[in-house]
Amino acid sequence: MNLVLSVSLQVKTSEFYRYSRQLRHEVEQALNYFHNVSEQPLMEMKSNHIRSAKPQTAVFRGMIGHSMVNSKILLLHKPRVWWELEGPLVPLRPDCLAIVNNFVFLLGGEELGPDGEFHASSKVFRYDPRQNSWLRMADMSVPRSEFAVGVIGRYVYAVAGRTRDETFYSTERYDIIENKWEFVDPYPVNKYGHEGTVLNNKLFITGGITSSSTSKQVCVFDPSKEGTVEQRTRRTQVLTNCWENKCKMNYARCFHKMISYNGKLYVFGGVCVILRASFESQGCPSTEVYDPDMDQWTILASMPIGRSGHGVAVLDNQIIVLGGLCYNGHYSDSILTFDPEENKWKEDEFPRMPCKLDGLQVCSLHFPEYILEHVKRCT
Prior knowledge:
It is a single chain. The chain has 379 residues and is mainly β. Helix content is 11%, strand content 41%. It contains five helices and 35 strands. A five-stranded antiparallel β-sheet has the order 34-1-4-5-35, with no helix packed on it. It has a four-stranded antiparallel β-sheet with strand order 6-7-10-11, with no helix packed on it. A four-stranded antiparallel β-sheet has the order 12-13-14-15. The protein starts with a helix and ends with a strand. The mean pLDDT is 84. It is found in: Nucleus. InterPro entries: Kelch-typ_b-propeller, Kelch_1.
């Protein structure tokens, strides 16, 4: 920031600045951009637009085995090659990820406490691929792990989840402009291990665990029907019209993945059975698609092997599924490719990840060439 102010001062004292309205406008715009740090994801300008033609598939976080956290950002940058960038130096276990205009928000999850145990976290970090830099943003109101997120307009919503001692129904949202959190209408039931995706400016929540059993439930949040401020801030549940039940999935599942593609929601894998006595789980290989116009789920071709804690992304008009914990008990570094048009799965279309990851977060990001020039090839 100090460098920006120094450069702008030199520009402002130049003769060209005094006689160029265009230059004055661009300088003021740039200063405003760097001054309002929290608003940057919402400030679309020609000068901060990344001109890279093709987005990169980026993998954030994930667990290597039971205790080691992946601290790198892994990029499927060039055909058949994985590259890496440095991630945030925070020992967070798998957390939620939200994308706002090519900025990445990592939220919650678990972090190592002073007692040597992992505890739910309220921390929020923002990643800017333009500078390959991280910022700590305002914490969530409560620590959360195994929750769901979605972005609608200027808000990032965090839904339900749990700590080691408590399961939540509370829902809150992050105001990007104000850099603060506030409670909104709570989810109808306590839940964790669910998945959330935004479609048509509504947040869809699927599956999860309620009362120690997996759920088929599908519930949609419509922010245009939010309750009063008093209802949002109350700690007890309040019935409102903000949440609406939709057609249930064909399979109960938790720790699955969901993604929107061509106006529909696709759900992949997860855990379909949790035995209450032993807490053992059974992986689910099934795939389903939801049509919001028909309010109907359709079963699609199953994955070659069931998995949970995997990542999903859209790449070249296909949906790719990365890593996760397979139901044979092994962690995976493989990438499966699903063609929605042909309803077919393929394997080995892309190179395996450099490590076996569970609980990873995947997205597509544009990186400037000057950042990609400094990536390191994964070994």
